[in-house]
Protein: Major curlin subunit
Amino acid sequence: MTRTIAKLLTVLALSATVGQAVLAVPAEAGGRISFDVAPRNQREAALFSTGIRVYSLFRGVKDGEIRQQGNGNAAGLAQAGRGNLGFIQQQGNGHRATLQQNGDNNAYGIFQYGRNTDDEVVQNGNNRSGATFSFGW
Structure:
């Protein structure tokens, strides 16, 4: 029991230290936050892929699309295989993104907002899906 309490106290002390460091960062400092959506199994991948494909029908996209609103953005989309669908959407300034799809029936979207985000995604295999959302300030 003493060992468990010691571990708990150590974790709490480290958490407090990290928390203080995070709070010390100025609010006006530039930065970014990004998260990926990656299905855990084939069923989730099929469901997510269907969602991306429905979105593509709404947008009128067949294989892939890059949409940019802002200045100084750069994006690239490469597809090797059949039935792949890829999106890169950039709103803001100074974004960079690449999406490479290798295999068949893959679906992926990169969505960047704010400024100065940088994402590189390589999708290998068949019937895979996912998305990346990045926000920069």
Remarks:
- Helices lie at 2-23, 42-59.
- The first strand starts at residue 32 and ends at 37.
- Residues 2-23 form the longest helix (22 residues).
- Strands lie at 32-37, 64-69, 74-80, 85-93, 96-102, 107-115, 118-124, 129-136.
